[in-house]
Amino acid sequence: MRFCRFGEDRLGLVEGSQVRDVTVALDLLPEYRYPLPRVDQFIANLDKISERVKSIAADSPLLDLEGLKLLSPVANPSKIVGAPVNYQKHIEEAKADAGINFGNPAHLAPIQKIGVFLKACSSLVGPGEGIALRKLDRRNDHEVELAVVMGKAANNVSAADALDYVAGYAIGLDLTIRGPEERCLRKSPDSYAVLGPWMVTADEIDDPNNLNLKITVNGEVRQDSNTNLMIMSVRQLIEYASSFYTLQPGDIIITGTPEGVSPIVPGDTVVATIEKIGSMEVAVRAA
Predict the structure, then answer these.
(1) What is the pLDDT of residues 47-71, one digit of tens each?
(2) Parallel/antiparallel/unpaired status of strands 278-286 and 131-133
(3) Of 13, 180, 190, 259, which sees the most CB atoms within 10 A?
(4) Strand ranges (E), the chain
(5) What is the helix (H) or strand (E) element at residue 90, kind and residue range?
(6) Cis peptide before 35 (omega within 30 of 0)
(7) pLDDT digit string (tens) for 234-264?
(8) CA distance 123 to 136
(9) What is the DSSP letter of 37?
(10) Are 43 and 151 a contacting pair, CB within 8 Å?
(11) Neighbouring-strand partners of residue 286
């Protein structure tokens, strides 16, 4: 199944070029009073919601996908986990390009040594909301990545069992301001994490480590690779991250970017594509 969030927080079931408005299925979600649980309630109750959607889809309003404002399919992650330098050719290009490494070789150590990092949840948007660039006097780069959405709490999970904890997959854009500061700061401005165009449930993707991924900017191909070139696989990333903290339902792991990262500027149009998921078009503007 392919779930999108659109408009004024409507829930959609994507069917080709159309969307079934199945928002009524969200009535099954539990109600809470403060303090609210630190999980995404849609993802935490995905099985129950999915069954409800199946029963009502045929009678639900049918909308054209074109023209809908697509939001992030996950509204409330407790964490966005990033995997730096997780493709060898990206490490090589970063070492060779001072515009990327900014004279800080520590940023280019192997992922097994430097580990993962966190992006602020406030950086999360959907493709319909666009990218609002900050620090326009500095280089802002695009990075296309496979995004993994966790489906249940994962703590000290083994790589062998890791995919059992995944709710689904989406396309992720990890935007980066180049400079000397820590990654978590330069990658966390508002709109610097784009997730979409929808979430494909895990049952539709047998092997997340064998997917073509590509990004174009104004029609020019900038990145074109396959997730089988990751240094740490999806399974290994879940095992590693969950050894440090509990991954909650709705938490997002963006799994690293291949070579070809390059600057974007206001007025650009970015199109990111991942096999078996789809494509999303994102407009770039100044904040």
Answers:
(1) 999 999 999 999 999 999 999 999 9
(2) parallel
(3) 13
(4) 2-6, 10-15, 18-21, 62-64, 70-71, 80-82, 117-119, 124-125, 131-133, 140-141, 144-150, 166-174, 176-177, 193-201, 212-217, 220-226, 252-254, 269-274, 278-286
(5) helix 88-96
(6) yes
(7) 999 999 999 999 999 999 999 999 999 999 9
(8) 17
(9) P
(10) yes
(11) 133
- What is the residue whose two structure tokens read 């995905």? 46
- Can you read off the two tokens belonging to residue 1? 């199944």
80-286 maps to which CATH number? 3.90.850.10
- Evaluate whether 148 touches 238 at the Cβ level (below 8 Å): yes
- Mean model confidence pLDDT for the chain: 95
pLDDT along the chain (287 residues), means of 10: 97 97 97 92 98 97 96 98 92 81 72 94 98 97 98 98 98 96 95 98 98 98 98 98 98 97 97 98 98
Residues 153 and 174 sit within 8 Å (Cβ to Cβ):
no
Residue matched to tokens 């938490």: 251
